[in-house]
Write a structure and sequence with these properties.
The chain is of the alpha/beta class. The protein contains 8 helices and 5 strands.
C-alpha cells in the first residue's frame, strides 16, 4: 500500500478515493458512502424484481411448469452462459443436484461451464462459439432442458447452443437482460424471460431471482406429483 502512486489512475481515484486523501480520510464519511451505495443498489434490485414480476409473472409460472413436466419425464437440465452468467448456470445446477431444502429431492443437471478441459479444447480447436453447442450435441437428448443465460441476449455461443438444442428437441429456456437481444427474437427459444435493465450487475441479480423462482415452481410441482403417486400407491396396497 505504501508503494501506491500518490496520484493514482482515474480508476483508482474513482473507486478508492480514500486512498488518495493524504491519510486524512474520515472513516465515518467512508461508511456513509458505503451505506448510501448499498441502499441505492437494494432499491435498484427491488425495482427490477417488481418490473420482472409485472412483465413476466405468467411466463415464469408457465416456464417452471414446463420444466417440471420435463423433469417428471426424466429430463436432464443443461445450463450455460459466459462470465457472471456462467456462475449463475453453476449456481442453478448446484441447487438442482444438491437441493437446499429437505423436502426437495435431487434432479439431474449439468453446467456446461464446469469442464474447463472441454471448454478450452473446443474453444481452441473449433472456436469459442461452439463450446456449449458441442456439449449439447454430446449430452442432449429429446425432452431434456437447455437453459441459456445472457445479460445482453446476444452471446453467440449461448444462442448457437440453444438453436442446436431446439434441433435435438430439447426444451429451450433463455434468461436475458436489457431488451432481450437476438435471443428474445429467436424462434429457437420455447421460453425467453427478460430482466428489463441495462446495468449488468442488476441484470444478473434479477436473473438469479428468476431462476430461483423457476426452481421453486419445479420442486413444488414435483413434490405434489410425488405425493399424489404415494397416495395412489397406498390406496392400491390397501385394496
Amino acid at each position: 500500500m505504501a508503494d501506491i502512486n500518490k496520484e493514482g489512475s482515474e480508476y483508482d481515484r474513482l473507486f478508492y478515493p480514500f486512498l488518495f486523501a493524504g491519510g486524512k480520510a474520515n472513516p465515518e464519511e467512508v461508511l456513509v458512502q458505503v451505506r448510501h451505495s448499498t441502499i441505492e443498489k437494494c432499491r435498484e434490485i427491488v425495482a427490477l424484481r417488481r418490473a420482472e414480476l409485472t412483465a413476466s409473472r405468467d411466463l415464469i409460472v408457465t416456464t417452471g411448469q414446463a420444466m417440471a413436466a420435463a423433469f417428471a419425464r426424466g429430463a436432464t437440465l443443461f445450463a450455460f452462459g459466459n462470465g457472471g452468467s456462467a456462475t449463475d448456470a453453476q449456481d442453478m445446477v448446484t441447487d438442482l443436484v444438491n437441493p437446499p431444502r429437505c423436502e426437495w429431492y435431487p434432479l439431474p443437471a449439468l453446467s456446461l461451464t464446469n469442464d474447463i478441459a472441454v471448454v478450452t479444447a473446443v474453444g481452441n480447436d473449433v472456436g469459442y462459439e461452439n463450446v456449449f453447442t458441442r456439449q449439447i450435441i454430446a449430452f442432449g437428448r429429446p425432452g431434456d432442458i437447455a437453459v441459456g443465460i445472457s445479460t445482453s441476449g446476444n452471446s453467440a455461443n449461448v444462442l448457437q447452443a440453444l438453436e442446436q438444442a431446439k434441433k435435438q428437441e430439447l426444451l429451450t429456456v433463455g434468461l436475458v437482460g436489457n431488451e432481450g437481444g437476438k435471443m428474445a427474437r429467436s424462434p429457437a427459444l420455447d421460453f425467453c424471460i427478460l430482466s428489463p435493465c441495462d446495468h449488468i450487475p442488476r441484470i444478473q441479480e434479477g436473473q438469479a431471482t428468476i431462476y430461483h423462482c423457476l426452481l421453486e415452481i419445479v420442486h413444488t410441482h414435483l413434490v405434489r406429483c410425488r405425493s399424489r403417486k404415494e397416495v395412489k400407491k397406498h390406496e392400491h396396497e390397501i385394496h
